[in-house]
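Much of what follows relies on a compact textual record of a protein's fold. Here is one such record, which you should read through line by line:
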Amino acid sequence: MARIVSFSEAVSIGIHSMVLIARESEALNVIKIAEATGASKHHVAKVLQRLVKDNFLMSTRGPSGGFLLKKPADQITLLDVFESIDGEITIEKCPMDNSICAFNKCLMGNLVANVTAQMRDYLGTQKLSDYLKQ
């Protein structure tokens, strides 16, 4: 079934992992995160390394190693995580990337641009700290 709005699997893993890590006082390892998210540990590791590279997480190797937030949870938005993994959200006027439309007006009536802007704005207001209460 088609979806109007969807996140990549990597973004979903990244957002869920970041909330799980933010909820813990000790480092959380890839195996525990993979079990909690239902994702492959290899995919989790790849996504988390991207977040380490962008300075949202720090990682420690070894039996007691894992991932910890590098910044406070109230300084990381879901938009930060999204854009770290999938790149900047841009708002395009035409969903088909056409500069000239074959019709007198857009068949989508700017719906795609409006929904994209709303999603970007929403993700920008949601901080990891908003999800720490269980």
User: Anything to note?
Assistant: The chain has one domain: 9-131. Residues 9-23 form the longest helix (15 residues). The helical segments are 9-23, 30-37, 41-53, 78-86, 111-125.
